[in-house]
Amino acid sequence: MNQLRRRLLVAVLCTVLFLIVLAATIAVSLPISFRYGNTPGFSLARNVVIGGAALSAVGLLLVIGMIAIPAALQPGTRRRKFLYILPAYTLGFTLTGAVLALLGIGTAGNFIGIWLGVGVLLTISAMLVALVRTPLGATTLRRATTAISLTAVASLIAWLALVGIVVIVLTSQPSTLPRGGIGQQGTAATATSAADGQGQPAQDEGGPGGRGGPGGPGRGSTSSLPLLIGTAVLTLVAVGEGVSGLRAQRSAREGVVAATTALPPAEYNHETGRAIFTALVLTIGGLALSQLVPISHTNPPVQTSIAWDSPQTASLAKRACMDCHSNTTTYPWYSYIAPSSWLLASHISSGRDKVNLSTLNTLQSSEKQRLPNDMAREIRNGSMPPSDYLIMHPEARLSVAEKQQLIQGLQKSLSQ
Length: 416
Fold this sequence. Notes:
The protein is mainly α. Helices cover 63% and strands 0% of the residues.
């Protein structure tokens, strides 16, 4: 492997590692956002971190595309053609998942999350293999090197903003937020109910808004240690990414490209057809293998039955709710064919976890009291039924009058 390839490979690995460490740092530092969300400069720095990370991820996708497309068009034997097509194929798989997410398909459960996670892992792996094993021209390598160098600039911006967050956390007092933190302002009004009848704030010992939770500013101790450790590790990775990008750019300027990359002009029309045919073979093979993953089609026992206030309410609930929010699911024919079976299983699992009308006996009294209003809110704002569920279940699409009738019926039936 020539010097430019090797340095480009190291730069790509450093970028991938940077994004992983940055995502982990953001995840473990979420309690910091609850405490310092209103501190001057914190929101701006956080948005810059997210924006820089997004630009870095987009830059990495561009690098993958610059490598994947020329690799897919390289001539070779049938076996090698499968190897050459993999970066472009896995990239298309990942982008398909991103489009599905934008369309709201598979977002109700963990279906789209698993799709994107597997897609990103396969795409990065295929690209790294292509950098090592696939013949690539000098122009392709130089363009990819330029793109990865610009990606390093976006990563540097994200790192600087994260350092700014560290400075804000270490030099500022926690901002005053409503009890319950970000996204729970609705609990602020109820937090002043008095156990002694004199309007003193409620003393919650646990949970996000209580003494031990991250949402209670000035209460408990939200440690900044995870943020500091993540930033320290990210600093090392950022230095490695910057140095490797500069070294790769220097090799590209010096024209350090092995003679083996000087390929004859590819017959693009012929190779494009072969690439499409190979992608179809991979798709058919993948769909065949996916049928081997078993999906359960049995329903757990019904523990509680609802006494509906009217047959109309029962019919509307059956159409729009019961397949995912009860233990009386009806499994259609496409629930036996992957990947639609996976999507449906994800819907059912997520729906039962949130609200299961067949196990109301397991809910606490406060949860039972909130349930009718919570369901009414989801129906009114169009969150339920989900848009992707309606694609295959058009009968679940309710008119405005039917939504109102269902809401009133649920409130009467569940309040009994």
